[in-house]
Amino acid sequence: MNRFLAAALLLLGLQVQVPAHALEKVVLAIPTTVGSQYADLLYGKELGYFAAEGIDLQLTGFTGGTAVVVPQVANKSVPFGLGESSLLIANVAKKSPLPVRYVYNYLASTTYDYVVKPDSPVKTLADLKGKKVGVVSMAAGNISMTRAQFKQLGLSIPGDVTLVPVGSGPAAWKQLTEGKVDALNLWFSEDARMVLGGVPIRRISHTDNLRPIFSSGMMAHVDTIKDKPQLVAGMGRAMAKSSVACAAAREKCVRAYWAFDPTSKPTAEKEAEWVKGAVAVLEANYSAIDYALKRDPNWGAFDPKVVDTYVKVLEEGGTVPAGAAVPATDIVTNQFVPEFNKFDRLVVQRQAK
């Protein structure tokens, strides 16, 4: 069965059965351990969206974050990877660009915010003057944006706002509930876990000019873009379908993770609790996608102006030299966006349900 027939069957809402030998194994490098937060991609694989493009999707986790994934793509050890863009920007700024571009905007806005206790006197980020803010670590990928955010508000670190490394999980939440920090600057799914853990919070978002900075995009080598455009288009289209399907059937979606890691499947009496937690994490991450789609309804699209904004953020954080020239075209491409969006969302939603 060729990929065109498979795609036609999907449009008709039929399950796709593609012989294994017809598929190309394609690795997507993940900048962390592959957890249930990537269930959307696994659900898309289960529904046959990648197979319809001739792809046997392989998710491979790399500890060490984007800084480890980018070299894997740059040296062609893997064809695709997920991650944020600061490393590519820094290399372009220092006149040592890497042969890598972001081709699909996945978590298409920031997944970080601030949370305070519901009765906190802090109503806006400006109210954090003279306060302590908990962060996962001083080396975390969002610290440059945190510094830039307060600088825009006329607040300095550590003069006006003190950042306190607290890690994540219950130990970090306790720092907030006991008043040892006035706010936590963590990520959306951590917010969801706090709520599930019985910690009441009130969220405060980044300002509107910083919220669109993407947290995770799919990158590819420039040779892959040039020599295998059909593969790039197919990967992005299948990812877009996966996001649509997962949003339409969250509980089915998270259960797809069990096929990837059978040891993660809980016992029957704990299954409902596990599903509830996994769904909360996916919904938290999807809010980053949903925010971006309201700005641009095209799946996978990048706003070049957002790259310019992030360059300024990294300048203010000291990651790149002041005044460095970083053309957005050296970081992202929207070449494949029309191809990514060649599918019927209603059909995908019906399949998922």
Automatic annotation (TrEMBL):
Originating species: Ramlibacter albus
Source organism, top-level taxon: Bacteria
Biological function: Responsible for the formation of the pyrimidine heterocycle in the thiamine biosynthesis pathway. Catalyzes the formation of hydroxymethylpyrimidine phosphate (HMP-P) from histidine and pyridoxal phosphate (PLP). The protein uses PLP and the active site histidine to form HMP-P, generating an inactive enzyme. The enzyme can only undergo a single turnover, which suggests it is a suicide enzyme.
A GO molecular-function descriptor: transferase activity
Any one GO BP annotation for this protein: thiamine biosynthetic process
Domain SsuA/THI5-like: 37-247
Protein name: Thiamine pyrimidine synthase
Chemical reaction(s) catalysed: N(6)-(pyridoxal phosphate)-L-lysyl-[4-amino-5-hydroxymethyl-2-methylpyrimidine phosphate synthase] + L-histidyl-[4-amino-5-hydroxymethyl-2-methylpyrimidine phosphate synthase] + 2 Fe(3+) + 4 H2O = L-lysyl-[4-amino-5-hydroxymethyl-2-methylpyrimidine phosphate synthase] + (2S)-2-amino-5-hydroxy-4-oxopentanoyl-[4-amino-5-hydroxymethyl-2-methylpyrimidine phosphate synthase] + 4-amino-2-methyl-5-(phosphooxymethyl)pyrimidine + 3-oxopropanoate + 2 Fe(2+) + 2 H(+)
The keyword RNA-binding is annotated on this UniProt entry: no
Biological pathway: Cofactor biosynthesis; thiamine diphosphate biosynthesis
Signal peptide extent: 1-22
Assembly and interaction partners: Homodimer.
Keywords, sorted A to Z: Iron, Metal-binding, Pyridoxal phosphate, Signal, Thiamine biosynthesis, Transferase
Family: Belongs to the NMT1/THI5 family.
